[in-house]
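agent> Task received from the user: take the single chain below, predict its 3D structure, and emit structure tokens. No templates, no multimer pairing.
agent> Plan: (1) validate residues, (2) run structure prediction, (3) serialize to tokens, (4) report one or two observations.
agent> Step 1 OK, no nonstandard residues flagged.
tool_call: predict_structure(input=
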Amino acid sequence: MLAVRGDGARPGAEGDAADDSDTWCARLQLTADSESSGLYVLSRWGEAECELTASDGRTAWTCCVEEERMGEKAEAWGFQTPGEYNRDVLQAVLRQPPSALRFTWGRRSKRARANQDQPATWQLSWPVRRSDLELRATLEFRAVEGEEQQRAAVAGILDRALTVAAAAQAKQQRSREACERLLREADKCLQQSDRFKEEKGRLEDELLGKFLAVLNAKKARIRKLEAAQGGGTAGGTGGGGAKGGSAGGKGAASIGGAGGAGRAGKGR
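)
tool_result: status=success, residues=268
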């Protein structure tokens, strides 16, 4: 039994998606004791069947589950149709963390490793929740027969893996470019905001200067009018005093004349 680590891609992870939603390519990192190896798995899921091909770069294995086998599994697990069983199993494997997947070599694994050859079969399993029960879905992979078929299968998986990697890299590049565009737009907005702020300050200063100029002009005019009105009032008051003095003089003269006349009468 080998555990599948979280290294590398897993089914359903972002960047692993293929052109259509029912096909994916994942990389499984396998560890057992001090040994570590990786497998690329190409999966195609239909309505009620699935076909998977796996390779470590040298050997290819395949697993094909047809609708009849799906029907048997669906009936045993209490599903209504093979398609319902297929959808639940697919969703379960896509939701699983890598640590929940289990990888088991076939019975020939020890002899095969001693001969520096790969085993003919292995199994991949993962948990599936069904009516509060945890079941395990299992897929058995068998080695592809024939050298030409082996090379074709390995080439197909590697081509798919390179396509997925290129798509992920292109997506990352688009995301980076989008971020850079957003940063440039943010810088432009900041610069525009600074310009608006400076323009607003300049207009406020200009309006305030004009307002103060008008206010000072009004004050000067008011002072001028007040000064003119104060000067006119003072001149009018001085003229009245002169008239009074003249009237007093005439009165004195009349009195003097009357006195002179009286004295003259007495002399007679």
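agent> Step 4: summary for the user.
The CA atoms of residues 79 and 85 lie 6 Å apart.
agent> Done.
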